[in-house]
Amino acid sequence: xxxxxxxxxxxxxxxxxxxxxxxxxxxxxxxxxxxxxxxxxxxxxxxxxxxxxxxxxxxxxxxxxxxxxxxxxxxxxxxxxxxxxxxxxxxxxxxxxxxxxxxxxxxxxxxxxxxxxxxxxxxxxxx
Length: 127
Fold this sequence. Notes:
- This protein is mainly alpha-helical.
- It is built from four helices and four strands; from the N terminus they run αββααββα.
- The protein has a two-stranded antiparallel ribbon. A two-stranded antiparallel ribbon has the order 3-4.
- The mean pLDDT is 82.
């Protein structure tokens, strides 16, 4: 990160709260890492900012869209199919990983349809 802590809106905060329960250091609302004899509230579960380094490194990558929205705001792209944000693996990416499979299947089906039509109807369609 570049020094500034990303601030979450309410839907992102709710998604992060659900992810906090996946953290191995989370124990009934308390953080095991911060426990020094008496229970300490998990700071990530009560904050709209990303405060816990363990959460950022180990738990946030479980939700790729939330991670892209919070950490990679400059690098992210918008999916042309669903409109969600994602981190592209190349500069040509148009679809998020979830939509890429469906888009590839749709294009392949259309290509095969054209190929079949061209082979059975005496050549390609004339404009």
